[in-house]
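seq:
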Amino acid sequence: MSEEKRTIGYICPVCGQAVIASRTAFQLAAGDSKLPCPCGKSELSFHQTGDRCEVTVPCLFCARDHRAVCANDALLRRKLLALSCPASGLGCCYVGQEGPVFRAMEKLEAAVDKLRLDDQTDSRGAFLNEVVMGEMLSELKDIAARGGVKCACGSADYGVKVGYSSVDLVCARCGAALRLSAAGPDDLDCLCARDTLIIPGKKA
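struct:
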């Protein structure tokens, strides 16, 4: 029986190329490891701290490194683990099964291509996709009108923070947030298929 492989992907902020590689679950869990871009000017790193792993990701969108701590169980077993840039709301690193990671990277590359095109034509708007964002906010309003937005802490009061390519629903009581991607039509289809949205809630 072959050892389970994990696929890792990010986009180099220096050369702009997608970097995708495979590591065995053992390699990721055994100790610190790095995934450098072939251009040699950026790298993604994993630092093990017991049952958790600190991931440092070079970000194309804000040109800074992001650090995220995740449970090894999620890193080694989840179908798709996404780490996002807080400034843009877009994914900057994916870890998981090969198929889901490749699909997520394709969506990310398409978003990056659109950003580059907008920059060249000087037409970047307030949102990555203005039509999708407008429809997302309209659908959210409909779900909320039906009483479909709640927090796991029991509160039904929440605020909405609209980003460049995402929408955060923030519980007014405990401060927990649920992030909804609003980068493309697939995200809108996903939202339209849901009757309720549950903010995860924070433990006291």
